[in-house]
Amino acid sequence: MIRDYAVVGGGIGGCSIAALLNAHDHDVVLIEKEPTLGGCASTFIHRGNRYNAGATTISGYHEGGIVKRLFDTVGVTPNLIATDTAITILQGEKSCIRYRDLNRFIEEMQRFYPHPKHDEFWRLIHALQGAFYTLEASYSYSNRSRLKKIASLLSFFPLLKTFRRYLFSNALEFIQDFYGDIHESYLDFLDAQILIVAQATSEKINFFTAALALGYTFNETHYPLGGMVAVCESLTSKIPDVRKGCELLLVKREGDLYHLTTTQGIIHARNLIMGTSHYESSRWFDDKEIRDYYASFEKRNNHQSAYVLYMKIKTDTLFHHHYQLISDSTLPYTLSKSLFVSFSDPSDSDFASGYYHITASIHTDSRIWLGLSPSRYKTQKQELHDLLRGWICDRLSIQSDEIVESFAATPKTFRRYINRTQLGGNAMTLSNFLPLLPSNDTPISGFYQVGDTSYAAQGWPGIVMGAFNCIRLIRG
Ligand SMILES: Cc1cc2nc3c(=O)[nH]c(=O)nc-3n(C[C@H](O)[C@H](O)[C@H](O)COP(=O)(O)OP(=O)(O)OC[C@H]3O[C@@H](n4cnc5c(N)ncnc54)[C@H](O)[C@@H]3O)c2cc1C
Description:
There is one protein chain. By secondary structure, the chain is an alpha/beta fold. The protein has 14 helices and 19 strands. The longest helix has 23 residues, at 374-396. It is globular, with a radius of gyration of 22 Å. The two termini are 26 Å apart. It binds flavin-adenine dinucleotide (FAD).
């Protein structure tokens, strides 16, 4: 039997495009190596305890938001609860809550770090991110041919026209000019938030990208009941053929067909959509054109990755869903001064009642972890585990006897489970901008790519934007 579409990888990208294809009545098979869907946005069980592997929060599910549009198109409703306060940020002895309401947040900023320019600055951020999402549906981006690429880039003209002042300004310089005098700790505060969305700090990106990153909490953010895996499960629930525990081993291309050798047999398909990272997929192909295609993007690989600490605690203290801890200096073995800490919701019956399950992540470089001797790796992993655990306990007043268990994942762990060490996709920096980045179509007939290393970006909204782009390119 020859399938119309084979989608490899059940992360956000693979699940989104497979669900869209199915919703448009295309024949599709989705394969995922692991026994559960989700990839970086999955949920796993460790010694009987449930944890979100990486992603913990969803943005873009507000009315008119792109993630909501995806679920509406597919005809399913994920089990989410809205979170306000979006993030509680702890820096030094101070704390700041990212309220969704703009006026309330500006008041909070004045208390946290008084400055006469806040009102103007945060209103600009609010306006830019609001305006971007009203234009978003008209963009498309193609890499199929030079002509198609140029034509697709023209769709960004309204964006360029409206926002050129911000698109061509370096974010750090813009912020410094805007505020006049600005303390390093306030820049750290901004950069910590910019980094978790844009995957780069203000010195490397344009101000428009920084504004989108700083402004995302002005939209609703959501907590997934049952863990992030439940969101991918519901997204794919109407697809008749989802194969979990099915690993792609080799792809051969013959004429118009792709032949996939997997751990569950051979799949023949007219079109192949890879939901795996651009930087770590070439190994499954013997086709030179496809290997060359992947090689052409290798220089975009920033080797950025994540170190994740998981903790289960038993406590009577009430916690918010998300905290960001900011330090004065970059933490050892990492690329960042900040740690993003997420708590399970006490009402979430899929997590043990009376306990919190914590996922805390920090940016690192995969090269800090790969190629170490086993003993050095173990020591380094333990050192960072102890440091981060101590920091969380100290800042959030968790007692050591409240901790039931804690353990960590490094880029090596992600490689073992989901076949990738580069995490977080492409940072859209001033030297790594759209015409240079991979699209969802390719110059190779029937060969597509979704996920956070393709257009548009990482995380739920960015990847879903790419899936919509992909289906538009497929359907013409
Ligand atoms: C620590 C961390 C925290 C994050 N927090 C958030 C957050 O709170 N909110 C948010 O929106 N985003 C967050 N992100 C970003 C987001 O999680 C990722 O951008 C997104 O999940 C990536 O999805 P993807 O589909 O591109 O790829 P992946 O998640 O990598 O999915 C690829 C899938 O392919 C599978 N696969 C690999 N090889 C094979 C093979 N040979 N055969 C079959 N299947 C294969 C893998 O198992 C995996 O499931 C976070 C990322 C990290 C790392």
